[in-house]
């Protein structure tokens, strides 16, 4: 009887031990101290004057990127703070960490803050990083030869037309966003009451968020991405700043759906920290966000 009681007690303790590590309310942690759910890619130390071409050596031969599974200069590192893993991305070399898993319909949340260091070629530019979602294919197909085909939830300082939650088409991606003309950047800014505009596919590649809700440098911004069936909501510190519809990509002149993929975090010439990276599956777009999508004709 004592043996059975001990076994039962052991089983109970094991249950609670494993349950304490289980996702809470459906949220699954993606970050641990070993980056066990992520892989890495490093491309190049880009120099001033970069124009989108692969760097070449003295003989004019293209230089190969540093590549997958490399961590030159310790660009990616995790430290524990009060028992919580914190990812540091130095930004010294362009590249990314990306999830091993492919995700379809989900809510993603995380916290981000800036470090002090900046690197060539963005010493005089706002600090920049990004959450790249619906990421598919190989790294290096974009302008900077560093990332996968994807959509970008931009992580940026509020300066020169940049804000947390801006949108970029990465590589040959495309999407529809309700937007109006703006004086900064590529000229478009998210407006939920405007007509949809097609981004990418020969149109503008950038859309500024509706407003800046970022916190001062050195503090943690709380970001959330809601993605369901090619529709995405960018949320900054609890405020919706942009809605992306009809996520896709262009291949041989044809628009195809881009509704699932891996998640990348960029290394882009600025020191940045991420923590609290959590993901939760969704069956449908939450009702509170469905209102941001309608059937206005695209222009």
From TrEMBL:
Transmembrane segments: none annotated. Residues 26-280 form the 3-keto-alpha-glucoside-1,2-lyase/3-keto-2-hydroxy-glucal hydratase domain. InterPro entries: AL/BT2_dom (IPR010496). The keyword Signal applies. GO terms for molecular function: hydrolase activity. The keyword Ion transport does not apply. This is DUF1080 domain-containing protein. The lineage of its organism: Bacteria, Pseudomonadati, Bacteroidota, Cytophagia, Cytophagales.
